[in-house]
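Hi F.,

I've been meaning to write this up properly since the lab meeting, where we talked about keeping a consistent format for the predictions we share between groups. The idea is simple: the sequence comes first, exactly as it goes in, then the structure tokens exactly as they come out, then a line or two of notes. No screenshots and no reformatting. I'm using this chain as the first example so we have something concrete to point to.
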Amino acid sequence: MTDVAILWHMHQPFYEDLVTHEHILPWVRLHALKDYYGMVALLREFPDVRVTFNLVPSLLVQLEAFAEDRARDRYLELSLTPADELTETDVVFILENFFHAQQQRMIDEYPRYAELLARRGPLPTPAAARAALARFSRDDLRDLQVWHKLAWLDPSYLQSDDRVRGLVAKDRGFTEEDKQLLRSIELELLNKVIPEYRSAAERGQVELSASPFYHPILPLLCDTDVYLRTHPESRMPRQRFVHPEDAAEQLRRAVALFERLFGRAPVGLWPSEGSVSEAMAPLAAAAGFQWMATDELILARTLGVELGRDGYGHLERPGRLYTPYMLSAGNSRIACAFRDHVLSDLIGFTYAGWDADAAADDFVGRLVEAGRRYRSDTGGQDAMISIILDGENAWEHFAGGGRPFLRALYHRLSTTAELRTVTMADGCGRPAAELTSIFPGSWIAGNFSIWIGHPDDQRAWSQLAEARQVLDAASSVNSMNLEQAREEILIAEGSDWFWWYGDDHSSAHDFAFDDLFRRHLRNVYTLLNRTIPDELFVSNISTSATGTAETAPSGYFTPVLDGEETSYFEWLGAGTIEVREAMGAMHRTDRSPLILTWVHFGFDKERLYVRLDAGRAMTDLLREGFTFSLTFVQPQGLRLTVGGQPSSGTATWWRRRVGDQSWVSDSTASTSVAAGTIIEAAVTLRELGLAAGAPVTFFIAVAKDGIEVERHPQHRLVELTVPDQRFEARNWTA
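Output, unedited:
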């Protein structure tokens, strides 16, 4: 008999900004509608099948919040807003984001949804998004609001729920009442998820295993220098991160959440991304975990062998892989299973294009053959084959949301005499071999390069290490702020922020992940009453950002500083930024338009000039309490703030104190500012300490009542060079 241990890994990062309480991306909610409930509910049809679901705590707490209708994301809010009340900014966002679904399986199957996508067309630029506005009526937008959610519903609801079938059959011409009906179905599904897992565990059909709470890479939390084991020549973060106590806390918190939600502690651990090391194993054992799992490549490197395969993908000597091990690390012991990489990836990446029955036959046939080869290799012993993979993303590419394939697979697993499905805990219950060490790495290439190998990753680790150091040094801070700052650090330790840095992976939401990571770290400094490093206001992504149209200065100019556009020509040589909401950027929780519309900047031979334009007169904005600041990153530690008297604006020049990094005003600085319809400011190059050819970088921020509401450019800096003698010649045109 061959034991087959299938583990479905269910994971989402923590999307909530703890300050605004907005969930920045909608994937917890949408995947809950489509897969988190349906994947476990399907097992009721196959009572003899036993599997393991690995539930990441950061996913579970967000599921709770959405089920209780106390969580919000902008996608949800705009799906519920009456179509007649949508602003132009709302509609641009909807056109950019309400088609995030697998086109073949989730859009093209529904004629109206496909029609709306064709009407929108591709959106390579924000200008294209604005141009698409004219092609959508309010009825079109209402239909899109419905289809954006309807296409994500669980396949069982799409097939058998009369309410859902009625909406699908209606196809178009949806009403506001239809949207409310869909919202009630959404809440119904969300409230079924956690109870369904609890029920499956109570009847013994499912084991619930855990990952560290916010899904960090535990070996890197223990010591980022572990990366040097596989990449000894790599550049590293400017500050080493060594906090095994944080790794232990992430594990303890996971156990506590499972005890609260499911009434029992998990005995199994899927370390985030299968990432293991000798430093994290004792921490897992100390937290009460009895088994953990990772990839076959880690076993091969631990044993110093090659796990060779034939042309069909079968292991040539399966005796090493298809058995659980007992790992001794420090004074601790923990069972360890190693997944079959090839078999797991067949489900994740290959079978989506196959007929469901053919795919299930192929997979089960491979399992049977693997078991036979194992018995031959070991003198008759039975194999334990671990199949571990993502439990949510693959099904978007399968016909029927993957349910036909899963039904075919579970049926064959139930009726094939040579196979028996087991939970991971059962499969790991009788380790057959001993390990005295384990190679440090993950299930991706057997190393940690994805999360620390790129300069963008390393910059982020440096920022995390420095914020963690500030937390350690915090004093005279109330306990509530201290605890919340610690929570922000634990969230920022999650793996997903680093996953999207570098050139390994990319999505339409790279800048959203980047900004949310830096938001968490900025919140740490705010909660601890420390000055936020300027670096945390600038994207860690080294590729160019979208969302602004920028031109460079083309010539010298000397404007009249009177707060008005005196003539078209006075700013003619300036560089410009057209401010507009970035595609894929962070979004304000309200639906108000952006304050600034344009930023102009440039030089004469003695000064740097900056001009700010808004949708309303600057005097009105100043009267309402808005302030506008120009913060320099090069040269460091200089800031100009305009606020106060609406008749002209009051300019304050600030310098950053070297010791505690706080800002102090400098009344001796020479700055010229005028506020009227616009704000115009001039700063002498001498005041900045800049000579010809020197770099100048800065950003513009808008604040209200001391709280920043806008920053431009959104993800990077304005980057200039002080003109030299050849400046005019380089920019001369006839």
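Notes:
Residues 356-378 form the longest helix (23 residues).
DSSP finds 28 helices and 25 strands in the chain.

If this format works for you, I'll send the rest the same way.

G.
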